[in-house]
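Reading a protein record of the kind used here takes only a little practice. These numbers are not coordinates but entries in a learned vocabulary of local backbone shapes. Here is one such record, which you should read through line by line.
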Amino acid sequence: MDFYVRVFVRVYTSAKEVKNSARRLSYLYQSQGCSSFHLQPLGQAVETGKGGVKYSPGQGPVVPQKCPETGSRYLVGGPLWNGPLHDQEFVGRVLEEVSGSSGGRYPAKERIAAVLTNVAEELPDAPLYFDQHEVCKVLRTTAPKAETLRSAIANAGYRVSGTHASPLGLKTDCPWDVLWDIMRCWHKEALKTTNIRPPEPGSYQEKMLSKEPVHQANFARNAEALSKAKGEGKGRFLPNPEENWGPQRRHGSKAPLPGHAVEKFAKKRTAAEGGDEAGGDEAGGGGKKAKQ
């Protein structure tokens, strides 16, 4: 959460897990017109009649030649991990640790708890998320409240959650054709109260809005779709601890900004090495010249 990553890796030797690894990797197909995405697993496993498992390459393609919503082509990315991103049991233990009586040992306990609270509420089997404002930008419509869109997805019979990666991100198992029908219904509702510019002829927006929604959305509030942590008033996306927080300087600047974390770190390091100008001794000056 502060631009740093530490990774611990344990390597196991297993022929079975090598085969399973192909099931946990997918290529990504993303529409150029509406940004909808689909995963193509590299491998699959089929249970045999004798209780065994037969591994084989994945079957596809999972998308047609062109996007059914906009008629645009698909871009291909990956391979990427398509399995669960988090060990929820471990997340729960750490969250209990930083939120309990011993949490005072951690200076950033509030921020750690905020990130892990989000992680604990995420759908474990949805590796990717979409930005609700980006979805609205495709149709050039006003954005609904997050709980309104989440409720419509839940009322359609699908699961939905937020993501720790973005306050505007949503994870769901809702198919894209149903999601776009929900957004078409929302666009009609928004037209009743908002002056929205009509789509340009031949645009992706016109193609999508020319279709009548097959699924009629229900925007009634659904408590099951909402964040329990938010309802309990728990912090989920805390602001940065200070202005210009982060390890990098402002673009185009040759020196760290005043008050920036980098500048503070540089001053502490200089003082610790004995080269701080406040020291004023000859040895300190010579040492500083040598370090340059």
Summary: The two ends are 33 Å apart (CA to CA). The chain has a mean pLDDT of 82. The beta strands are 25-31, 37-41, 43-47, 53-57, 74-81, 130-131, 160-163, 166-172.
